[in-house]
């Protein structure tokens, strides 16, 4: 379990846990709001399949207390940088600070390796851009597919 002792606005404890036999179905069923489907798949199941079929990505379940509320994945690039990808918070759980707590928890944990942390987002996804800026990520000017790359440099 990855735990930064952060809580969402409802006071629930947000943690990141491995996807396992007990929670994979709940993670697979995580679905964003309809208006977000231009940027993320309709279900987190797509990301789970990607991590099962790739040696690059590792999936994590996002928990609020003891309830699965989202998915996020991370990986290591050839240059040693850490990447955060595939974050989906269930539509019913959004606007509560869960995504912010999950991103901060994962970024803090990845930062302990001392390598840059990168992520990408669609230019039209202004909500994601604002969140990432607030967490200290800065645009690099690079793109990955049709997405903007942002980076956080560990202190």
What does this structure look like?
With 155 residues, the chain is α+β, with helices and mostly antiparallel strands. Helices cover 23% and strands 32% of the residues. The protein contains four helices and seven strands, in the order βααβββαβαββ. The chain starts with 13 loop residues before the first strand and ends with a strand.
Concise description?
The chain is of the alpha+beta class.
Low-confidence stretches: none
In one word, what is the shape? globular
Distance between the termini: 23 Å
| Relative helix content | 10-25%
The count of DSSP E runs of length 2 or more, i.e. the number of strands, is: 7
The spatial strand order of the largest sheet comes to: 1-2-3-4-5-7-6
**What are the secondary-structure elements, in order, as H or E?**
EHHEEEHEHEE
Percent of sequence in beta strands: 25-35%
Largest sheet: 7 strands, mixed
* SS content category: alpha+beta
Number of helices: 4
Mean pLDDT: 93
Radius of gyration: 14 Å
Would you spell out the secondary-structure blueprint of this structure?
Layout lengths: L13 E5 L5 H5 L16 H8 L4 E8 L2 E10 L5 E8 L8 H14 L5 E5 L4 H9 L3 E7 L2 E6 L3
Parallel strand pairs: 4-5
Antiparallel strand pairs: 1-2, 2-3, 3-4, 5-7, 6-7
Write a concise keyword list for the protein shown above:
155 residues, 23% helix, seven-stranded mixed β-sheet, alpha+beta, single chain
């Amino acid at each position: 379990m990855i735990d930064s002792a952060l809580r969402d606005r409802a006071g629930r404890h947000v943690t990141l846990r491995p996807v396992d036999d007990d929670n994979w179905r709940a993670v697979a069923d995580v679905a964003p709001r309809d208006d977000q489907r231009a940027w993320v798949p309709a279900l987190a199941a797509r990301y789970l399949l990607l991590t099962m079929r790739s040696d690059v990505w590792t999936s994590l379940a996002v928990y609020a207390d003891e309830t699965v509320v989202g998915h996020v994945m991370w990986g290591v690039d050839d240059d040693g940088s850490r990447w955060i990808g595939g974050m989906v918070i269930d539509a019913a759980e959004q606007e509560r600070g869960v995504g912010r707590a999950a991103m901060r928890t994962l970024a803090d944990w990845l930062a302990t390796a001392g390598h840059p942390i990168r992520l990408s987002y669609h230019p039209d996804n202004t909500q994601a851009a604002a969140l990432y800026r607030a967490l200290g990520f800065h645009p690099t000017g690079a793109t990955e597919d049709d997405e903007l790359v942002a980076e956080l440099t560990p202190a």
